[in-house]
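Schema walk-through. Below, the input block comes first and the output block second. Nothing else is stored per chain. Lengths vary across the set, and this one has 213 residues.
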Amino acid sequence: MNGCPDRTARTGDTDARRLRYLIDHYPLAMLMAERSAPMMAYAPMATVRETPLHDTDKPVGGLRRLYGHLDRGDPMLPALDGGAVKAAFLGPNGYVPAQDVATRQSPGWHFSCAEVSGATALVDDMAGKKALMIDFLRRMEGTDRIGIDPDGPEFNALLRRLCFFTLDIHAVSGRFSLAQDLPLADRRKAADGLRARIGATLDETLDVLAGLR
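--- output ---
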């Protein structure tokens, strides 16, 4: 938070619980293809359900595999057919002024993100795509009874418009700049301040971005 601080307390974080939580609650990933021609895309992703939270045979608490989907016409798709990809998940972020921290501090930008890299594979069979789509909708809607009939024509049309892929994780780490290197009182005050600032502008932001004002 101050000038050029020692960032070791908040970069390269491998806390499995926090990383898993961030990915589960902020699932939109920025995908970057690790190839000669720079390429980026945005895709909602989720952890494969059978992936355990703790597994000493795998890095970072056992996060093994993610899956996601893109529109069929997305130019990123060829890079997801066996290519190496990095996915970045950005969590809550915002400006925190000095008065929002109990200890004397300089103002700064607080943020949290998870960075995942690994090998991708496209899911070609309809049964596999259907299973992943149902799993994703159940997670997003928070219920096993999703709002679309998985055997109906609308669902099948949705599957035809999308391409699914998996990402086998080779490395994952987090960056958490949320005053966690400060005393508990500072962390609470900074979190409360950031929460209030995000909430205060959320309605206006959504209206502007949706073209409502």
